[in-house]
Design brief:
The protein has 129 residues and is of the alpha+beta class. The protein contains five helices and four strands; from the N terminus they run H-H-E-H-H-E-H-E-E. Strands 1-4-2-3 form a four-stranded mixed sheet.
Length: 129
């Protein structure tokens, strides 16, 4: 039994923590679908105006803002300023193994299981990835 603990420890040291739903984490900027309050696509984040749905989502207690760090700073800076204004933690996610269509995610530490996390507008009509 002690051998298994040492082996597990070595594997953890070499490969890192085991993660569930890796495919979802690659799409949703490191989090999983069930924890998301609201999400925007990269094209929505690139729009000139801030989406009105984001500020109320940032007023929810204990949320975190995840931003796609591959987007130009000029596109994400308005959301960074909004997060700072609301005293919300935020992270720029740069190290995903594959490109993602997601530009912004407001996420919880635990599951909230919202049925609809995407904002529909004229530019974006699909709701599933």
């Amino acid at each position: 039994m002690a051998g298994n603990n040492v082996e597990d420890y070595l594997i953890k040291g070499i490969y890192g923590e085991k993660q569930i739903k890796i495919e979802e984490r690659n799409i949703y900027l490191g989090t999983i679908r069930e924890r998301i309050e609201i999400a925007l696509t990269t094209s929505q984040v690139m729009a000139n105006a801030i989406y009105q749905h984001i500020e109320p989502a940032l007023k929810i207690k204990n949320v975190t803002l995840l931003l796609n760090g591959t987007l130009p700073y000029s596109a994400i800076s308005k959301y960074i300023q909004l997060a700072k204004k609301n005293n919300i933690q935020f992270s720029l996610v740069n190290n995903l193994p594959h490109p993602t269509p997601i530009g912004l995610v407001v996420t919880h530490k635990n599951a909230v299981d919202k049925s609809e996390i995407f904002i529909k507008d004229a530019l974006y009509n699909s709701t599933k990835f």
